[in-house]
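Researcher: Here's the sequence for the chain we discussed earlier.
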Amino acid sequence: MQQEPELSRAEIQSFEPAVSSQPAPTTETPQPEKASKNPAGKVGMFVLLVFATSLAWHVASDLIAPGSSSGAVAASTTQMAARVPGQVSEIFVADNQRVKLGDRLFALDPASFDLAVRQAELALEQAILAADASTVNLTGAEAQVEQALANLEHNRTTMERTSALFERGLLPRTQLDAAELQLTSAQSSLEAARAALSAARLQSGAGEHSTPQVEAARVQLEQALLNREFATVTAPADGVITNLQMAVGQFVNAGSPALTFIESDQRWIVVDLRENR
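Model: Thanks. This is the structure I predict for it:
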């Protein structure tokens, strides 16, 4: 058995520095890395929050301030027409023109209306003259009644005197019969005078110039004046003119639409909403 040669002390010392110069290996236990946060979770939470907020706003707006994508503005419209027939002489407006209350829209030829007014005035004058004549007749009828009353009183007095003398035997029967006949005639005359007075009163009316004929003539005059006023059509309110369908010289009938009037003071909005709004 061979023995390995022993190293000398000098050789051993020569190896020691080389060995001690190298650092001793360290064994460290690896630490687990902290888990990094997931960004997808934050995005999902944000989207969920936005959706919830939008849904709440939508429900609240439907209850408090509902809205719609469809709607229309409406206004009160009127078909303007003349109240009397006639020929158009002037047109004061045009389509889409704004007008004020009382502004003239169009006018009819006033010649025929002026003539009707003049005729009504003459008819009224004639009725007043006839009423004056009726007043004269009434005065005469009243005088006839007074005369008939006086004649009746005279014949009644004569009858009483004749009857007294006849009872005394101073007058014959023939004179008594004549006195009775005159009294009866006087009574008939009084009744006839009173009937004539009643007829005169009915014909003359209750007062001066108030006979039925005069009142009828006054009504005709008022109607003629009103028709002349109706010959000029004016705006009933503030608004806009549209759909003008007339020209100067055109004959229009009463009630025939000539234009459309849109009133500007009465407007409203029509919006389609769901039932739960």
